[in-house]
Design brief:
The protein is mainly alpha-helical. Helix content is 75%, strand content 0%. Helix 3 runs antiparallel to helix 4. The mean pLDDT is 81.
Length: 133
């Protein structure tokens, strides 16, 4: 008598292929139906906003330059925001060290003073760089 017959029934953890395929087909059909339902909503989207600077109709190089300049302006704003976050986070950490008694008050004052100077310098440099474009 074989070992399998002694155990009674052989159980496998294999799922039927048909049920998996039906589930995938149902998901694809649901996605397709959602795309068809959303198509009328996307038909009336507004036109793209033209960049400032007034490029002539058909002057795609000037239009590209203006989009590039606005992209650089957004990047400049992100760098300035990053500088504020870094200096602010460092100031909070330094204040926590002062509260625990690890640093002197004079060191905390110098950190705040240098942090403010760095922010002023970063803002000045970024504004100047953005104006050069």
């Amino acid at each position: 008598m074989s070992y399998l017959k002694k155990k009674g029934a052989v159980s496998t953890d294999v799922r039927p292929v048909i049920s998996v395929n039906r589930r995938d087909i149902a998901a694809m059909l649901l996605l397709l139906a959602a795309a068809f339902v959303a198509a009328p909503a996307m038909a009336d989207l507004p036109a793209a906003v033209q960049p400032t600077g007034g490029a002539a109709a058909g002057d795609y190089m000037q239009l590209l330059r203006q989009y590039w300049k606005q992209g650089i302006a957004v990047f400049v704003l992100m760098v300035g925001s990053w500088a504020f976050i870094e200096v602010g986070g460092g100031a909070v950490a330094k204040f926590g060290e002062w509260r625990r008694g690890k640093v002197e008050l004079s060191e905390l004052k110098w950190f705040f003073f240098i942090g403010v100077l760095m922010l002023v310098a970063v803002i000045y440099l970024l504004t100047t760089a953005n104006g050069i474009l």
